[in-house]
Structure formats: structure tokens, C-alpha cells
Amino acid sequence: MTAHNPIAVPPRGPYGEIAPGGAIQLPVVFPMKAVPFLFLSLLLLLAPRAGADEIQLSGQRSLETDLYEARLISELRGYAILSGRSCVNCDENTSIYIQKISANGDEDSGAESGIDRYTYPGQYADYESKRVVEKTRMFYGRCYENEPALLWLSESLTESGWVKSEYLIVFREGHLEHRYNEGRQPSIFYIENGDCRELPGIIAETEP
């Protein structure tokens, strides 16, 4: 998985819980087959359910996501930059997601969100050989000509050695501008801006 190759696909605080005293308990003297079907249906409706996370934004707003273990990294020109996973108990790595924020903080269904995911920065070893095959740095903030942007600087191991590349997303008014440069990293000049921050990387393995 590489930053320049988004994968099409893809903590809301604590999961909901029944208020104290509100749980319905079955009488222990009755076997389960004796419980009316309607009663069982009510139990299923009231039981706590695992779900995706809700993120707290600035201005006391919240944002519903389709992600698990979700974390807000930044807000850039009406978009939430998130990390998380689209599944639980699976081999999927934590990734970067971009989700549009509407005026009231909800997801904008007309925007690109929950569709593409991008590499979380760090060193990735091949899950079979355990050899490091990708090294990626990620920057967010004013990382391109003083414009809000996301920037990935990557090195991928190929048969001929390590190859550099960069993937840039610039947040323009009303749209996102995507740029990919293979074999070079021309935007590295802009990371010296104090408003361009680096997201610390992780050590992980590639997905099977």
C-alpha cells in the first residue's frame, strides 16, 4: 500500500450503553424457548451495539464516521483529516481518510468521503519476508505555497533499489487537487513552513 495509490473501499466516543437500571433481565426459571418472540426482539434493540466512531470537531461539533479507532488529525478548509480503520478484527492497517464537513458538522453526502484511503506514515515491512519495503513521511497544514495541503513523501523498494515519490493533495475552494510525482519529491521545499506539521510514523507490516 502506497500513499500515491489510495485504496478504494474504506474514539464516536464510548459505545452506547443501557442506562443503569434500564436493562431487561430474563427470569432464570424460564427456558429461552419460553420467552416470547416480541420480548427477544426488544432485547436485541436495547442491547449495546458496536459501531463506527464519532469524532469531536472544533466549535463543539461532532462528525459521524464509518471508521473504527478513528482519530482526528486536523481540519483543513472544511475537511476532517482522520486516521482509522474500516473494519475490526481484520488485517487492515490504520490509514488516513479525508471526510467533508457540512455546516452543522455532519458528513456531506455529496462530498468525497469514506471512499479513498491513504497510507499512514511510517516504515512498512513485507508481511512475509519481514523486509522493509516502504518508508513514508506525511505532512499536513500549509504544506504547499502556503495553501492547506496533505503531502506524502515516500520511498519504495523496487528491483532496482529505492525509488522516491510524492503524493500531494491541495485543498482548494470547493475541491481537492491531487498531484503525484514519481521518482522525485519537488514539494519537499514547502515542509520547512512552520504551519506544515509532520505526523509521526509507525512501524507496521504490509497488508496480506
Describe the structure.
This protein starts with 6 loop residues before the first strand and ends with a strand. The chain has about 210 residues and is mainly beta. The protein has one helix at about 35-45, and strands at about 5-10, 55, 60-65, 70-75, 80-85, 95-100, 115-120, 120-125, 130-145, 145-160, 160-170, 175-180, 195-200, 200-205. Mean pLDDT is about 75; it is low at about 1-50 and about 105-115. A hairpin with a 2-residue loop joins β10 (about 145-160) and β11.
The gist of it:
By secondary structure, the protein is mostly beta strands.
What is the radius of gyration?
22 Å
Q: How would you spell out the order of helices and strands?
A: EHEEEEEEEEEEEEE
Mean pLDDT: 76
Number of strands: 14
Instruction: Measure the end-to-end span.
Output: 10 Å
Strand content: 35-45%
**Unreliable stretches:** 1-50, 107-114
User: How would you sum up the global shape?
Assistant: flat
Number of helices: 1
Structural class: mainly beta
Name the helicity range: under 10%
Largest sheet data: 7 strands, mixed
Write the layout of secondary structure elements.
Blueprint: E1 7-8, H1 37-46, E2 54-56, E3 62-64, E4 68-76, E5 79-85, E6 95-100, E7 116-119, E8 122-125, E9 132-144, E10 147-158, E11 161-172, E12 175-182, E13 196-199, E14 202-205
Parallel strand pairs: 8-14
Antiparallel strand pairs: 1-7, 2-3, 4-5, 5-6, 6-7, 8-9, 9-10, 9-13, 10-11, 11-12
